[in-house]
Amino acid sequence: MSTTHGWTPVCAYDRLELDRGVAALVDGAQVALFRTPDGLFALDNRDPLSGAYVLSRGIVGSRDGVPTLASPLHKQVYDLRTGECLDRPGAAVPRHGVRCRDGLVEVRLHGPTAGGVAPHAPTAGGVSPGRAGTAEPAVAGVGGRLGGHGG
Length: 151
Fold this sequence. Notes:
Number of strands: 12
CATH topology: Rieske Iron-sulfur Protein
CATH class: Mainly Beta
Shape: globular
Pfam family, one: Rieske_2
Keywords: 2Fe-2S, Iron, Iron-sulfur, Metal-binding, Nitrate assimilation, Oxidoreductase
CATH architecture: 3-layer Sandwich
Helix content: under 10%
Number of domains: 1
Structural class: mainly beta
Organism: Micromonospora pallida
Strand content: 35-45%
GO molecular function: 2 iron, 2 sulfur cluster binding; metal ion binding; monooxygenase activity; nitrite reductase [NAD(P)H] activity; oxidoreductase activity, acting on paired donors, with incorporation or reduction of molecular oxygen
Strand order of the largest sheet: 10-4-3-2-12-11
Distance between the termini: 28 Å
Protein name: Assimilatory nitrite reductase (NAD(P)H) small subunit
């Protein structure tokens, strides 16, 4: 798997659907990736309260302007920016660095960038923020493995 200073390419930006999660295997770790109007977010895929690897199947939303993720199992709500559980103080999901570079989404495990969020539009590569993607289950082909959000 090719990395650049700890950054692993996972998938093309336009493969991520707005407000839908996907699971990616990055250096053996399951990561949940989300593309929202606020940017890209990367958290562990493991729900810290149940221990199940399901967060990529969670419900993306917002609470008081904060981008959130509700666990698909017990519906605890997590702040996508920080990983903190908004319903249970002290509980949190580890977050990871995520960025879009030349149209590719890259993840750095346990190394958040700019507060754990990347701008929603790539800095290069020509993908516009409003372009809908297709995130069908597939191998990303550029470094990490990308899995669908289920359904």
